[in-house]
Design goal:
- This protein has two domains: 35 residues, no CATH class; 88 residues, no CATH class.
- Helices cover 26% and strands 35% of the residues.
- It has four helices and seven strands; from the N terminus they run E-E-H-H-E-E-H-H-E-E-E.
- A hairpin with a 2-residue loop joins strand 3 and strand 4.
- 14% of the residues are buried.
Length: 152
């Protein structure tokens, strides 16, 4: 499911098997968002295309952290990507005007993410804002689907 702020109902069901181009586009977006649930994904995947633009000590909810400002150059990532399918996806994003992933990442003394924030302008789509908070490392979680009346 994707939450679409400002729409009623606010949740959209995503089906990667759908033949509808809009559904397939949402599925690609959902996959990208899920990949970024771990804020270190792009750092690992695109290490040679990532610039650490800034690093500074910070405190998040009483936890000492280092705040990193990161920029992933998607054109460079596409050139370096060995997987043809991922390379094609990156090249398509770059042709569409989506050339960078800019984010902020907060990491604690144990090298665990504490928080992440990404705000991107997606040409033809709008603004994607992804804010994540990480806590309770090692504890089980339960994620409930949105109520059926809030899904379109």
């Amino acid at each position: 499911y994707l939450r679409h702020a400002g729409s009623d109902p606010p949740w959209v069901r995503v089906d990667a098997r759908s033949a509808d181009p809009a559904d397939r586009g949402r599925a690609i977006l959902a996959d990208a968002i899920a990949d970024n649930g771990d804020p270190t994904t792009n750092l690992v995947r695109y290490a040679d295309a990532t610039l650490v633009a800034d690093a500074a000590d910070d405190v998040v909810d009483g936890v000492a952290t280092v705040r990193y400002a990161l920029v992933v150059d998607l054109a460079r990532a596409a050139v370096l990507e060995p997987d043809p399918a991922l390379r094609a996806q990156l090249e398509q994003q770059v042709r569409g005007g989506f050339t960078r992933i800019t984010s902020t990442l907060w990491v604690d003394a144990a090298n665990r993410p504490v928080g992440a924030h990404t705000r991107q302008e997606l040409p033809g789509v709008g603004t994607l804002t992804l804010t994540s908070e990480y806590r309770d490392w090692g504890r089980p979680v339960q994620i409930a689907a949105p109520p059926s009346g809030q899904i379109r």
